[in-house]
């Protein structure tokens, strides 16, 4: 509880980790607020069904609060967004001159603040993917402020967890995105960094994952614990193995 997990991908797609955490927390009985900026609800629902979870059922019983970013953006841009219960759209900043993510934070806080009848184990904020906010016009400072306030509200006050996916490319000219990624790395309790193979595409090894446990955050003299595995994505699960020890090699 109270942990901030950063999912980072470079030269590959790390969304399989988002699907894992989404189904994991729903099965564990946690209240989940999913800020989905990259894909539609039906996309996440189809993948979740393969993993044995129904997002539709989770929404109906109040366990999952789903923000469909693609739909909200279109509604805002074409003036079709309807204010729900007098509240502005969570992505209101798109149509305003000021880059202010307060409405999005208010949406997250309201969604995860437990009501009297709630019996969920703990609140979880899941964001896929944070880099999209920069593409929509938010400044790096606004994005980092949003994450900071979410950490205070979700991790510190509500004793919940936050899982955020960001895309990164160290050779990129997108300085704003790299600034956000590097800043988040310094604040994360756990970093799952998915990278494509330096040698290119391989049928039996889809990439490698670097697991960084930030022991140094606890103000001890210990070094961060780093483990590196390679992986292969299958239809309903992912196989992990030590580097160079895939079934194809052995």
Automatic annotation (TrEMBL):
Q: Name one Pfam family in it.
A: ELP6
The cross-references to InterPro entries, in alphabetical order and at most eight, read: ELP6, P-loop_NTPase
Example GO biological process term? tRNA wobble uridine modification
| Span of the signal peptide | none
What are the subcellular locations of this protein?
Answer: Cytoplasm; Nucleus
What are the record keywords, sorted? Cytoplasm, Nucleus, tRNA processing
Q: Which pathway does this polypeptide act in?
A: tRNA modification; 5-methoxycarbonylmethyl-2-thiouridine-tRNA biosynthesis
Principal localization reads cytoplasm
What Gene Ontology terms describe where this protein resides (cellular component)? cytoplasm; elongator holoenzyme complex; nucleus
Q: Which PANTHER family match?
A: ELONGATOR COMPLEX PROTEIN 6
Family of the protein in this entry = Belongs to the ELP6 family.
Q: What is this protein called?
A: Elongator complex protein 6
Q: Which organism is it from?
A: Pelecanus crispus (Dalmatian pelican)
């Amino acid at each position: 509880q109270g942990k901030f997990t950063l999912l980072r991908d470079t030269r590959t797609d790390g969304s399989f980790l988002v699907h894992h955490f989404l189904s994991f927390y729903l099965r564990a009985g946690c209240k989940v607020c999913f800020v989905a900026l990259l894909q539609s609800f039906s996309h996440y629902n189809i993948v979740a069904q393969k993993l044995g979870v129904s997002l539709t059922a989770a929404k109906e019983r109040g366990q999952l609060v789903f923000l469909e970013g693609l739909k909200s953006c279109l509604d805002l841009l074409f003036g079709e967004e309807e204010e729900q219960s007098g509240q502005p759209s969570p992505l209101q900043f798109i149509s305003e001159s000021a880059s202010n993510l307060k409405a999005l934070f208010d949406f997250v806080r309201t969604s995860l603040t437990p009501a009297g009848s709630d019996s969920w184990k703990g609140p979880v904020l899941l964001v896929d993917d944070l880099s999209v906010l920069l593409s929509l016009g938010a400044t790096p400072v606004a994005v980092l402020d949003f994450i900071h306030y979410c950490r205070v509200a979700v991790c510190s006050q509500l004793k919940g967890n936050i899982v955020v996916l960001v895309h990164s490319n160290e050779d990129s000219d997108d300085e704003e995105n790299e600034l956000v990624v590097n800043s988040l790395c310094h604040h994360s309790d756990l970093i799952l960094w998915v990278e494509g193979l330096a040698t290119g595409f391989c049928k039996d090894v889809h990439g490698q994952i670097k697991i960084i446990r930030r022991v140094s955050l606890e103000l001890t003299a210990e070094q961060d614990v780093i483990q590196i595995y390679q992986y292969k994505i299958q239809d309903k699960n992912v196989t992990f193995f030590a580097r160079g020890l895939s079934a194809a090699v052995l």
